Amino acid sequence: MKIFLATVAAALFLTGCAAPVYKHEVAGLQKSETMNFVDARPPAESEQKIFSMLITSDAYATYRYSTSSLDPSALRLFQHRIYEKFPEGVKPSQVKVHHFVSYMNMQAAFRRTAVGSIFGGVGAAIASGTQNYNADFKATAVNRATFDAVSEANEYTKAFFSAEENPNNAPVFIVYIDAEIDGKRNFVRGIAPTSRTDGKNPYLYVVDNTITAFLSNY
């Protein structure tokens, strides 16, 4: 099994380094540059943050993942996908983004690794063998009031998932998009593993699919 960019990114997080930037091609990107697109997000949502490196912490191995780790960025890709969604003559007059934020949850995998390092040998083999990366992308609607009620100290909980979303407890990316297109507002959440076997970039995959889920409301 090939383990792609996100595994490397997680290791870089632990050493305090920035996640690597993944360059990708977007056909006709320049066409959407002039669309009225307002970024009204809290500034922190575009920034990387490690919530905790302490293994006993509830926030251990959860991160806010920079939307600029893609080039073009996740937000610029969102702008372009909206442009593509609407045909000529009915392009939106304004798009306003309230939230576009990404998280990475490596908690279970890192705790398994820690167990392996403590017990060695068989322990390491067990830890490695119980990792399962076969979960697929899932999207759900988000309750805006619940999201906004989360305090800054508890932001790490936005990186948590349910057993239904991630039954294999795999490391995952979680992306939230709250935006309005010509006054119609929707809020969605997408989740997918941080590793893939098909050669696709895992973060780009979850971003693109979350955008698609968001746009399905229009």
Rg, rounded, reads 18 Å
Tally the helices. 6
Low-confidence stretches: 1-6, 115-134
| Computed structural class | alpha+beta
- Secondary-structure element sequence? HEEEEEHEHHEHEEH
Arithmetic mean pLDDT: 85
Total beta strand runs: 9
Overall geometric form: globular
Strand residue percentage: 15-25%
Q: What is the total domain count?
A: 1
Helix content: 25-40%
Distance between the termini: 37 Å
For the sheet with most strands, the description reads:
7 strands, mixed
List the keywords.
9 strands, alpha+beta, two-stranded parallel ribbon, 29% helix, seven-stranded mixed β-sheet, 218 residues
Describe the structure.
This protein is of the alpha+beta class and 218 residues long. It has one domain. The chain contains six helices and nine strands; from the N terminus they run αβββββαβααβαββα. The strands form two sheets. Strands 2, 3, 4, 6, 7, 8 and 9 form a seven-stranded mixed beta sheet that branches. Strand 8 and strand 9 (184-193) form a beta hairpin. The N and C termini lie far apart (37 Å). Mean pLDDT is 85; it is low at 1-6 and 115-134.
List the helices and strands and how they pair.
Elements: H1 5-14, E1 22-23, E2 37-39, E3 49-50, E4 62-65, E5 70-71, H2 74-85, E6 95-105, H3 107-119, H4 122-129, E7 138-141, H5 144-149, E8 172-181, E9 184-193, H6 202-215
Parallel strand pairs: 1-5, 2-6
Antiparallel strand pairs: 3-4, 4-6, 6-8, 7-9, 8-9
